[in-house]
Structures are given as structure tokens and as C-alpha cells.
Amino acid sequence: MSFAADQFLKTVSEEPGVYRMLDSEQQVIYVGKAKNLKKRLSSYFRKTGLDAKTQVLVRNIDDINVTLTNTETEALLLENNLIKKYQPRYNILLRDDKSYPYILLTKHQHPRLAFHRGARKIKGEYFGPFPSAGAVSESLRLMQKLFPVRQCEDSYYKARSRPCLQYQLKRCSAPCVGKVSDEEYSAQVDYVRKFLGGKSHEVISSLVAKMEHASEQLAFEKAAKYRDQIQLLRKVQEQQSVSGKHAELDALGYCRRNGMVAVHILMVRDHKVMGSKTLYPKVPKDSSDDEILTSFIAQYYCAPGATGRIAKELVLPFAIDEQQPLSNAMSELKSTQVKLNTVHRGERAQYLQLANKNADSSLEVQQSTQDAINKRYALLKEALHLDDIAHMECFDISHTMGENTVASCVVFDRQGPNKSEYRRFNVTGITPGDDYAAMAFALNKRYGKLTDESKIPDVIFIDGGKGQLNQAVAFFSDWSFAKMPLLVGVAKGTSRKPGLETLLIDAGRKTVSLGSDSPALHLIQHIRDESHRFAIAGHRNKRQKQRNQSVLEEIGGVGQKRRQALLKYLGGMQGVKSATIEQLSQAPGISPAMAEKIFNHLHDKA
Question: Residues 1-24: pLDDT tens digits?
Fold first, then answer.
């Protein structure tokens, strides 16, 4: 280790803060936080008592950067942000970046209930997050039965001249055509707000009072309507209710087996189990359970924009050292007290038992899937006579009659598809429709400037016959690295049906046919189909972009104003294309020289 730890530790503050450990290439390999930076960082350089993981980490340290914070809570939040940014290899990594779905109640005159995912640009109230899109859809269906608030798009709502089918089904009160007063509609919207906010008891009490008032006024039809709504609400409560007293908590189930970890979150809101989800954090070797669970809670609940996830109480599967600092940080984010507890009896223990059971079951399914992948890799190694396959890549070409040619490269590792490593190449400088030249172009783009031997795949699959494979053989004929990937062409059978593929090896001089039920062939079909899908998607995007771009934009000197003038004066693009040079020159802002330039460009294009 070249890092001068003793000299560095003399300068470290005893304040709270965050530290970033860097390797010899100045890559961040670990991010941590501490209440006392000097004490925490000194602990890494003890002569005894370090676990295996920490010893490996310390051997790779070349430098340490430190950022001071005012409090330990600030340090925790900064640590989480930096882990998200740098994805250090020695940190526990929670890869759960997807946007969670919400229910949106808009701020229109007649508010709308809607599914929402993504940035909160629409004005209104957001309820959630929900564990899945299915949970949102189910909640919206329930809302339609309970409260006749519109869920239709604004364009549909504004165009109505008579009530739609939802009104006939008593699932909307038809505010679009005035079938309900603004006051009554606002009352229903308020019920929705309270119900989604976990105050269904208040909704029932209010409806009971309205039913009794209507009965006293001899408005029996209105009273019956409230009665039906109350009965449906109570039925829903009976179906969803659980027997206890806890209104809002998350129970975290935990299972660790064979190097993998599953954390199952069971979400309880308004005394009801609202849903659950299982996450699988990426865990470095020799990480402790305490470290894993601490990192999971920090990254899941303290991430930017994740405040809505935080429940008033988290029930943990076991006690952790950072329990109080995490509680303080989450309380500060939520602006209310958040408790982290471990329990052994009662209702919360039952929730935890259920969460642990789900974590165990989910991990078993995940590992059986991984076992199937491992079996496919083992059989493929045997079929190709290779000692190991840790990295495979596959290339495919997509175009329409030679236009908008796109090449794809997809990457598989031991876990299956590694989508962050996928690449597309816009193929240029070739004869349109020449798939062989396109393949040579893609291979040169991918490996022509490669400097890191560790990025060389063990196997490269070429989707196509001998012609495409020979392009790969020619490219690698003067390969300068010691490691040489195995080049395999995947040729379709005469009927092009899956299962009849032939593998071409050794420049096509050797062929291998695998049975249609072979797991090794299924793995090859998977990577081949993935490269095909990725290439077609890129080609379609490129083609659509070209279609959406006016031909006039390609002409130098024809800006937005001139384009608009031409299109207006000549009645659209067809009029521009059929116009003579003289007719073009009569458009505002178009000189005779510019008109000739436009005419020549358009007709050269044709």
C-alpha cells in the first residue's frame, strides 16, 4: 500500500463528515460517513482486528478525500448521495432507481384521479408511493366504486356533450355535463383525499351524518345513495383490515444465502397491508448483516425524493448499530418522529415474520433463476470447449432497404444481460444494404481503440452466416492482445425457426448443432434475440427521427423563418417540392440564388 496513513490521520478532523477512498486510478472505491472522522478512519489502519473485506479495501487505497458536515444526519444524507453517484465497488449497492407510481389528484375545477409516474410537474396532490403499477390500478378501480370522481383524460372530459358509460355504471358523477353540483363533487373529492390519506373512519362518519340528515329531510333516495356508499366502504375495510392497532409501519424481512441478500418490505398504512416488494442489494464479499441492512435503509429511505416512502415506524429483523442516527435522519426528512424498532411478540412481530417468510421465498426464486443461468453457461462452455465464459457479446445489423443502418452490441455476464454495457453504432460510409461492411464497421467501432484487456469478451456471437462471421475473422486477424475471443456465427436454419440454428466456428469450417431443448442453445437464442431487439429499436428510432425532420432543415442558410415562409407561401412540403425555381424565389425572404440552392437540394434528394 502506497498510502501514507499515519501522515494523513494527523490532519483529519474529529468533526462529523463523509470520506471517499480512491484507488491508484483515482476511482472512488468506498464512501463512508462518521460521527468522528478521525476515529473512524483510524480504525481502518489498525494492525489487527480487520475483517477480510476491510483488509482488501485498505490495500487498494491510494488517497482519501474528506468532506465535513454540521451533523451526523447531514453526513448520512451526503453519504447516500455519493454512493448513488459513484457506485463504489466496496459499498453495499441498492440498485433500485426506478420511479415509483403514485395516485394523482389534480387541481382542476373538477379534479381528476389518475395514475402518475415520474417528475411531479402536474399541479395537484400525490398519494403514495405504491409498490407497483398494479397496486395503483387496483386502488383506482376501488376509488371508482367508492367515490364517483372522474378519472378520464382532460381532452375527453372537455369534449363531452352527454354523460359517458361511467356515469351509467355509477362510477362517475358526470361533472363534465353538470350532472352534479360543484359543492357535491368537492365533497366527494374530499372523501377521496381523506381515504387515500388513511382516514377512512372519518369518511364513514361524515357519510353517516349526511345519510341521517337526508332521512330527516325525507330525501330517501339521497339517503339510500349514502347508505350504499357506507356499506361499500365498510365492506372494503373488512376485506383489507388487519386485526391490530398499528396504522403505519414498514416491516423489513431479511434473508441471506449463498452470497445473495433479499430485503422484503411489507407496507402497512391505515391498519391495512397496502403492498410489498422485494429488493436484492448488490453485496460485496465479507459484508456483515449489520452493514448490509444499514446501507439498505439509508439508500432506500434517505435517497433524494424518497421522503414519501418513509413510514412512521420501521420494524427491523435485528438490531443495528446505526439505529438511532438513521431514525434521526429519517425524522428530519419526514418532519415527524420516525422509530426503528426490533420486536419479538405481538402484531408487529407477526408482520415481521410474514416479511421474513417473503424474503426467504423471494430469494429462493431468485437463486433458482440464477442456478438456471449458471446451468446454461456450464453447458455452453462444454459445447464450445471453453474453460470459462464470464463475458459474451453479440452483434446484429438492422436497416430498411439499406437506409438508416444501425449496428447493436449487447453484453452478457454471469448474471445474464448487462444492459448498462449495451452499445449502438450508427453505420456510415458504406454502400447501403452491405451487411458485411456494416458488421466490419461495428467491430472496428467496438474494439478498434480498445486498451483494457479485461474488457475483451470470452465469446463474440455474430448474428448471421459465413459472410458476417468472416468480417469478424478478418478484423481479429491482426489482433494485438494475448487474449483472443472465440468467434461464433449464429446461422438460422432453412425455415428460420428457433431451435434449428447452426453455430459456425473456426471461420465457418466447423459447425455445431445443439438440440432444440438444449439450455446452452436457449442462452445463445437469448443473447441473439436481445441483440436483434436492440438493433431494431435503434433503427426505428433513427428512422422516426429522420421522418420527423424536415428536408429543409438540411439546407444551409434556410433557418426557421425561411422554412415557415416557404411552407406557408407554397402550401406545405408537397408544394415546396413541386415548385419551380421562380416560384420558390417569390416566397418572402428567398433570393433567386437561395431558390436555386433549395431546388437543387430537393431534386438531388429525389
Answer: 567 888 888 888 888 888 999 988
- Is-contact 136 115, C-beta < 8 A? yes
Does the pLDDT value for residue 243 go beyond 70?
A: no
In the chain, count of helices (H) and strands (E)? 20, 19
Residues forming a β-bridge with 273: 268
d(CA 600, CA 580): 10
Helices (H), 448-518: 466-475
**Residue pLDDT, tens place only, 419-432:** 889 999 999 888 88
Residue among 2, 1, 56 nearest 29 (CA): 56
Total-model pTM: 0.51
The string over 251-278, giving b where at least 16 C-beta atoms fall within 10 Å of a residue's C-beta and e elsewhere, is bbbbbbeeeebbbbbbbbbbbbebbbbb
Phi, psi (degrees; rounded to nearest 5) at 55: -60, -45
Average pLDDT, whole number, for the chain?
A: 83
Q: What is the structure's pLDDT at 493? A: 66
- How far, in Å, CA of 521 to CA of 47, rounded? 52
One-letter amino acid for residue 105 of the chain? L
Angular region, 594: left φ>0, alpha ψ -120 to 50, beta rest = alpha
CA angle 220, 221, 227 (to 5 degrees): 85
| 276 backbone φψ class: left, alpha, beta (φ>0; ψ -120 to 50) | beta
